[in-house]
Amino acid sequence: MELLIKNGYVYDPINKINGEKMDIAVKDGKIVESVSSDAKVIDATNMLVMPGGVDIHSHIAGSKVNSGRILRPEDHYKDVKPRTAITRAEVGHTVPSTYTIGYRYARLGYTTVIEAASPPLKTRHTHEELNDIPLIDKSCYLVLDNNWIVLDYLSQGEIDKCAAFIGWIFKALKGYAIKIVNPGGVELWGWGKNVESLDDQVPPFDTTPREIIRGLCKINKMLNLPHTIHLHTNNLGKPGNYRTTIETMDTVSDLADGKPNIHITHVQFCGYGGDSWITLRSGAPEIAKYVNNHNHVTIDLGQVVFGDATTMTGDGPFQFILQNLTGNKWKNADVEAEGSAGIVPYKYKRKNFVNAVQWTIGLELALLIKDPWRVFLTTDHPNAGTFMKYPRVITWLMSKVAREKVLNKINKRAKKRSTLPSIDREYTFYEIAIITRAATAKALNLANKGHLGVGADADIAIYNINPMEIDPSKEYKKVRRALKRAAYTIKGGEIIVKDGEIVKSFIGETFWVKPAIPEDLEKDMLREVSEKFKEYYTVSLENYIIGENELASSKPIAVKTNL
Amino acid sequence: MKTIRNVVCPFCGSLCDDIEVEIEDNRVVKVRKGCAISATKFTKYNEERIYKPRIDGREVSLEEAINEAVEILANAKYPALYGWSCTSTEAINIGIEIAELVGGVMDNTASVCHGPTILGEQDAGISTCTLGQVKNRAELIIYWGCNPAHAHPRHMARYSAASRGRFVKGRKERTVIVVDVRKTHTAKTADIFIQIKPNSDFELLTALRWAVKNGELEQEEIAGIPAEKIEELADMLISCRFGALFFGLGLTMSAGKARNIEAAVNLVRELNNYTKFVMVPMRGHFNVTGANEVMAWATGFPFAVDFSRGYPFYNPGDTTFVDVLTRGDCDAALIVASDPVSGFPAEAIRNLAKIPVITLDPHETLTTMISKVVIPTAVVGIEAEGSAYRMDAVPLRLKKLVEPPPGILSDEEVLKLILKKLKERVK
Amino acid sequence: MGEITLKPKVTFKVPIIAETITPDNFAGKPIEEIEKLEMWEGNRKTTLGDLFEAAGSSGEAPADTKIIIEGDVRKVRRIGYKMTDGQILIKGSVGMYLGEKMEGGKIIVEGDADSWVGAGMKGGQIEIKGNAGDYVGAPYRGDTKGMKKGTIIIHGNAGNEVGCWMRGGTIIVKGNAGLFPGIHMKKGTILVEGDCAGRCGAMMKGGKIAILGYVPSVLPSFTFEEIKKSFKVKGEKIKGPFYLFTGDLNENGAGKLYVSTEKNKHLQFYEKYLE
């Protein structure tokens, strides 16, 4: 199967291509140098061509997402689309069905998405849902920081065995990276408590949040995993928490070796200044300053979009606080010996002071941080807004006028306190390509994603917009419209979207890491872990493990460790 | 003879996964570690088997039966697809695709069991956890309107009252309270038994919540319990370190139903302002939770989904199978892994007998006896593998231990064949 | 007044979705066009003309359009959906979701109505001469926006959860009501002239409910205030006396529950709280 995409304006930052008019050749699912004259031609004249989007953090599959669906039937009623010969019925707004998620991402031109937080004991559920998300390639992060076996080993200073255990968990459960959520705090939530600082004790374990983060950062390096540790900070959602965020970033700065070694996720939620909801202000300037001066950190935004959202995180205690603040219905689901999850419906309102401040923070971060290779576009879907709003967020980054329009509608006090009105920077298409596909693919170390060089997977997005003629600063509405419905989305060399409609559906690949653990170390570790399992868990170790045949389309990535 | 360990028991929502079976000559000859119900299931699953597909009582080939099923479903204007709680998640997933294709109503047995729990959750949320969290931490356990001694025999030893966890080492370190209308076997083992007046759970839960908030109880007696006793109970709940409430049909099916659960949710939520408290529904069938999960991720809704206009529509009371049937709204039915005739109200059964019914089941049941098309299938968890979700939504993998009888396929395989033919028939 | 009469052509078996039967959809249209209006018979998309015999002529505007439905329409749902004006008269019993989200106009049913009468109503009037099912005025599951405005009168009995999530308007049940009238109520008025199965005003935050007949008990999260002489509904004073309760205190609610003293002697013990 050969394709030739002709005459498009290509943005491929990994290969330093910045709006060059060039052809892209596809054969057998890969980008190639050239194709024969039998190739199907796509005329991309005056159109913008990018690699398919790579979403590094989104809640798309697993028990937490499904709890959100079950909790919120009212979210589904208005947002429905009958089935067609090619597509299953679509349903849901902030918590759509699996099929809806796949189709919607494809229509936006996204081709790789990672489920941001899977509790190990329920990761089988995550895979069963990933199996049912069409079109995109996908994976999941495993939440490991409040795991009893990990905490036992870290407390006892047994970092080798801890690394072996974590390496084994990736093989057993088929995940991609180490996810950390409110380290220590979620374990204490098992007793209804929380932590407040990086140096709080986490009884009965002899450890602290700081030690957990540092331990896992070291282990990540020992295991040589492709992505850094991916971290949701302590004190999320608390006024003044930007200090915790900077402290968290700083706590592993001495462990870095020139490359990023920590990713802080949805920083908007951890970027609050002030000391109460009344004195709330943005902590983005301080965080941006730190990130600009320390290249061991990457972040993603968690940008707020006004309207309906569903908050869902592994931060049990935070979700409980939110429930008390809003009075909304609340689901909490602790996972034995591993963590928790909380879901609370939420609505972001322009005139609400707090929501307005929150809205400014994500944008300030993106505009004040100079290196677009270390800032990624997310809405922490569906926490700060749905991924359907990515095009809108993009226009806020590309157009000061677009920002001002919103600024004029938000709570006036929030606008007054924000530095956003004084920021003139506007992202270019090249930079947008970086923060939505090139940088994320690079941060994930997915060699064949996020770029259009020869050998890459043929995951391509073509948008009906002429980057040479359009002024995104003024014509941001056109930009938004074009990005909402790809002219073409190509996945693995197959055309899946044409003019915003799904024309073909199939299941993409679930990729996961397979770290090589030295046999003896693994044996020793498993002997100990089997004993712990009997006491801590209510399932057998054998049944905890997920068979590769349980993944509809498994793509293991062998990893050579430093063990 | 071979021994298979860590077998997942396909009977109740406890989904115990430590069963050991011995296989000889393609039969299960011995079962270890399971409860009495489990042992019966593993050794007597070949009783009342159906060995050949039937149409109108006549034995036919599998292909004929499938063709007839396809015709019935394709021609129906409002077919219902029901059951699903005793089969694999994969099979249910195919069922959903069939229901969507034929524009029917897809519902599972939650609608007559813990459907109210889901409804309560949809109005108020829920604070819950996996069972190991209870085993490890809970020092106060309440069984409300459920009788695990009978319905979930190993629950208390494996997960709750008598379990041994990291921080709580056994029955002696726990306080067990039972709330029920009569003194059940579970009640007999409790530290405190609250005999509640039938159909007044909502009142007692409301009073408890009010007492937890330090409100004054203006009635001397509520739900048959003296006000002082209720206040005492409220104090106990607030002062424990970790409390867990298990609840069953006594709460979901007595007057108020979903509102009873909502009241329990609100009480538990209130308690979380003072201590740590959770609640876990005692799901009956071994994969009814799986049916809810897969229906939710595929359609947005956990049961009672009407696809008649090509998209999912949900409104229990309208789209729940027992109601659809009682009103005589459906003109065909596909029943999988369930026996509604043995439990539904008379009017519903009368209407079921009037329409063409296709049933997939390993065993002869009252439902297979009134069905037009019967397709025998393998026993999931013994003759066919698949995924199942425990009552606390922990997903496990059911094993295939022996081969099914010759010519008998799994629910999943039969449904795939039906779906394939339907795709050729319906556009 | 333009009048269109509809008669079912067959006995309906599967559910019929008849959202298009409204004065708004009929006004200004000749019969031929009305017959082409979309309807669903189970999973088959069809037309009004396929299912109903239509006769008469509609008015120019919804306000002067009256629809008369004769025959058994117990399987027909969503009649009057979002209507803004005009009249519908059903000479028999009708199916679910009658007058869902209606904003104005009048619907009269001579027989019974199935559940969800006036679901999420925003104005207008519905009168059921017979009995109504459950969830009068209530929205769908998980939705918290119930009846906002308008009047619903049930001459017979109503089922459970009358006025669930109500935020305005008036519901009058002349017969008996089931469990949980006014559950999650925020605003509005509910009057039950007959008996009530109980649990009035559970989780209510505002609004007022009056029960003229027997109710087995009042929820423990309601507090007894005083004895009131009368209860006002739609400007009219209903003579008591009534025990007045405030609740639902579990929700910090300020709703008012009036319960007849005459018919509820078993509640006399509350009088010990009188100052």
Cα end-to-end separation of chain A: 42 Å
Number of domains of chain B: 2
Protein structure class of chain A: alpha/beta
- Subunit organisation of the chains: heterotrimer
CATH architecture descriptor name of the largest domain in chain B: 3-Layer(aba) Sandwich
The biggest beta sheet of chain B reads:
9 strands, mixed
**Overall geometry of chain B:** globular
**If you average the pLDDT of chain B, what whole number results?**
97
Structural class of chain B: alpha/beta
Give an account of the 3D structure.
The complex is a heterotrimer of chains A (563), B (427) and C (275). With 563 residues, chain A is an alpha/beta fold. Chain A has one domain (50-502). Helix content of chain A is 34%, strand content 23%. In chain A, the strands form six sheets. In chain A, strands 1, 2, 3, 4, 5, 21, 22, 23 and 24 form a nine-stranded mixed beta sheet that branches. An eight-stranded parallel beta sheet of chain A has the order 6-9-10-11-12-13-16-20. Chain A has a three-stranded antiparallel beta sheet with strand order 17-19-18. Chain B is of the alpha/beta class and 427 residues long. Chain B folds into two domains: 48-111 and 286-397 and 404-425, Rossmann fold; 115-281, 3-Layer(aba) Sandwich (Dimethylsulfoxide Reductase, domain 2), CATH 3.40.228.10. Chain B has helices at 36-44, 62-75, 89-102, 115-124, 131-137, 148-151, 155-158, 185-188, 201-212, 227-239, 249-252, 258-271, 288-299, 321-326, 346-354, 366-369, 411-425; strands at 2-7, 19-24, 27-32, 54-55, 58-59, 79-83, 105-108, 125-129, 140-144, 175-180, 192-195, 221-222, 225-226, 242-247, 276-281, 305-306, 313-314, 332-336, 357-361, 373-376, 386-389, 395-398. In chain B, the strands form five sheets. Chain B has a nine-stranded mixed beta sheet with strand order 5-4-20-19-18-6-7-16-17, with helices on one face. In chain B, strands 11-10-9-14-15 form a five-stranded parallel beta sheet, sandwiched between helices. In chain B, strands 1-2-3 form a three-stranded antiparallel beta sheet. In chain B, α3 packs across α13 (288-299) and α3 (89-102) runs parallel beside α17. The longest helix of chain B is centred in the C-terminal third of the chain and has 15 residues, at 411-425. Chain C has helices spanning 23-26, 31-35, 48-51, and strands spanning 2-8, 16-17, 38-41, 44-47, 52-57, 65-70, 76-77, 87-91, 106-109, 125-128, 151-154, 167-173, 177-179, 187-192, 196-198, 208-211, 223-233, 236-247, 255-260. In chain C, a hairpin with a 7-residue loop joins β18 (236-247) and β19. Chain C has a domain at 115-273. The model of chain C has no long low-confidence stretch (mean pLDDT 97). By secondary structure, chain C is mostly beta strands. Chains in contact: A-B, A-C, B-C. Chains A and B meet through α1, β7, β8, α3 and α10 of A and α3, α4, β8, α5 and α13 of B.
